[in-house]
Design brief:
Layout: H1 2-43, H2 49-61, H3 64-75, H4 80-89, H5 97-121, H6 125-133, H7 138-166, H8 170-176, H9 186-195, H10 199-224, H11 229-241
Helix pairs in contact: 1-5, 1-7, 1-9, 2-5, 3-8, 5-7, 5-8, 6-7, 7-10, 7-11, 9-10
Amino acid sequence: MALPCQILEMSEFTSFGLSLKLAFLTALGLLPLALFLGRFLAFSQKNWRGFCEAGLMLPLVLPPTVMGYYLLLGLGQNSWLGGIYAAISGKTLVFSFEGILLASWLFNLPFAVQPIQRAFAAIPHEIREAAACCGLSNWQAFWRVEWPLAWPGILSSLLLCFAHTLGEFGVVLMVGGNIPGETQTLSLLIYDKVQALDFQGARGLSLGLLVFSFLSLAAMSRLEKRKPVQRTLSWAAQGVEDV
């Protein structure tokens, strides 16, 4: 009786570690692209910005099975990307950790961009005009003025991506399968426990994900209410004076 319990505990530990790794790499890997897209969508006045936003939001409305199906086609060995990866590594991109990481980047892109877009859009236009009048380049204005003001949204983006990836099920299952030690994340392990009628084990893991998700959303809400306008203006003025 002791050996199966030890195996089960190791399985939970491995899946939890894999989920943490996937969530961390997803949030960190999406940050540069989310910063670029979020800032562009917040400040751009292009007529086709609405089409960019619509395309970006597609993962929010598409069923995970549909998203997973097209990712299977796009990452399979017969695709150009899957073929290049197979030629270089000798492995297939689907049913691998690298495959679910790439799928997670695509699926979580709107979750990464939206908080950052809101954070940049909340920066008063007068602050950006003042930075330009002081001779700051776009990069200097971003680093010295916009970044210090938008950091709560940036941190919210990281938290949201991390929490959503930790509980992702459909796309990971479609692209990575359910391979223990390779693509079996915590949510897939919960599914296996339910299938095996181990409701006690599934209950404990599900409760852990529920509590973590709630705390992440509560932290996001607190971050978004952290800065009043007066403090925002003082931080921006300080950033301009330091030039």
